[in-house]
Amino acid sequence: MAEWLIERGIGETRAALVEDGQIVEGRIDRHDVLARHGAVLPAKLRTKAGRAGRAEAELADGTLVLVANPPVTEGATLLVEIVREAIPERGNPKLPLARPADAPARSAPGVEGTLLGAHGPDLLEQAGWSELLDQAETGLVPFPGGLLRIELTSAMTVIDVDGDLPPGELARRGAAAAGSAIRRLGLAGSIGIDLPTLPDKAARQAAAEALEATLPLPFERTAVNGFGFLQVVRKRVRPSLPELIQSDPVTAQALALLRRLEREPLPGPDQAGAPAPVARLIAERFDWIEELRRRRGRPIEIVPAL
User: Fold this and answer.
1) Quick one: which H or E segment has residue 245?
2) Helix (H) or strand (E) holding 185
3) With helix as H, strand as E and coil as C, how does 70-125 read?
């Protein structure tokens, strides 16, 4: 039976859907992000709608969002529902998308599940949390007989399937592994999967069925062509874990360090080392430092590692 495990950490909330002791779906919500999917928020319209029918509006924290077909004029305030969070695309970050809302203001809904404490068994880690973050950071996902290489591009996320198995077997296993990785890492939008060349129609169909067996609906896909290429499209409502972590690795490393320090048995160290950029970021975030002190019951100094 699958169960969501939820951890309200310092700076972020982590959630993992765990089935048979393994993470099948991961999610990270950063606490600094107001414009989260499903939230209904007041916004002030800054510009009129352009040719695409979208206008720019500003939320209470200064975040700019694009609002589809706003019913008010510039300078007016309206409630908007966030339908897609900001996407930190390299070289072309995408603003959050919103639509006018007729519902009352509300915060974004979260997943429901078991809330974990910081000083009990580390159930997230036991299910593979560190491996999940490593796969998101590197884009490398091993599977029996091969390796997935996940690349973020401006056009789509591309998954290359590599290995030494016979082409048909490699395609079938690679497609299954790609389906699992798409779900686990929250990949969405347009996703291209590059399998081995498969001239045999039955082998192409077997690969497509292997993908469908590991990736739950809803999604759309093409057939596997003779060159082994398959395209999947999933609705995009938030950044994937690779997008989140690769776009700002310093923040990701800082929050991972805070998680480790929070979980260390007391009394714990009085000082911890970190790469210089990570130590600087934490030093600038007094709210993180104070929260860590409160949770540990004693202060700790983060210093640049030599």
Assistant:
1) helix 241-247
2) helix 167-185
3) CCCCCCCEEEEEEEECCECCCCCCECCEEEECCCCCECCCCCCCEECCCCCCCHHH
pLDDT in tens, 126-151: 999 999 999 999 999 999 999 999 99
Task: Read off the pLDDT band of 165 (50, 70, 90).
Answer: very high
Residues 61/63/69/75 CA torsion (nearest 10 deg): 60
Tell me how far apart the alpha carbons of residues 55 and 132 are, in angstroms, rounded to a whole number.
37
Read off φ and ψ for residue 88, nearest 5 degrees.
-80, 60
* 145 vs 50: which has the higher pLDDT: 145
pTM above 0.90, yes or no: yes
Q: Name residue 234's amino acid.
A: R
User: At 250, phi and psi to the nearest 5?
Assistant: -65, -45
Of residues 82, 101, 102, the one with CA closest to residue 38: 82
Picking from 192, 185, 182, 186, the residue whose alpha carbon sits closest to that of residue 154 is: 192
State the Cα–Cα distance between residues 84 and 96, nearest whole angstrom.
6
Cross-sheet strand order for the sheet of 140-143:
140-143, 146-152, 157-163, 189-194, 229-234, 220-221
Q: What angle do CA 290, 296, 299 make, to 5 degrees?
A: 55
